[in-house]
Amino acid sequence: MKAEGFDLTSVQFAALNTLGKGEGLDQATVAKRIAYDRATIGGVIKRLEQKGLVTRTPDDEDRRAFKINLTEQGKDQLTALQPVVLALQNDILSELSDTEKAMLLKLMVKALKSAG
């Protein structure tokens, strides 16, 4: 991503991508969906907030939790990043057949579900 001019880690991208699919999630849900440690997701979200990509607002139902939303800048950056990530994935998986790619994805989803 840095080679393409983006200052984001893979975990930050995963969090943005997750929020792009369902905003208003709390930090614990984002952590679970990207299979990341709940204890440190707050730092990831804080850095995204400092970059102007997300906002954190207290949850009305649980004052200990924060709801996370993409800013317009975050939405724009996610849109710009998606083709870069897709190209990287295609490079990494270029030696796999379509059947093997589908199987790998299925196994990765299964592994993530069992981790959460």
From TrEMBL:
It comes from Celeribacter arenosi. Gene3D superfamilies: Winged helix-like DNA-binding domain superfamily/Winged helix DNA-binding domain (1.10.10.10). The keyword DNA-binding applies. Keywords: DNA-binding, Transcription, Transcription regulation. PANTHER family: TRANSCRIPTIONAL REGULATOR, MARR, TRANSCRIPTIONAL REPRESSOR OF EMRAB OPERON. This is HTH marR-type domain-containing protein. SMART domains: HTH_MARR. The lineage of its organism: Bacteria, Pseudomonadati, Pseudomonadota, Alphaproteobacteria, Rhodobacterales. Pfam families: MarR_2. Residues 1-113 form the HTH marR-type domain. It comes from the Bacteria. SUPFAM superfamilies: Winged helix' DNA-binding domain.
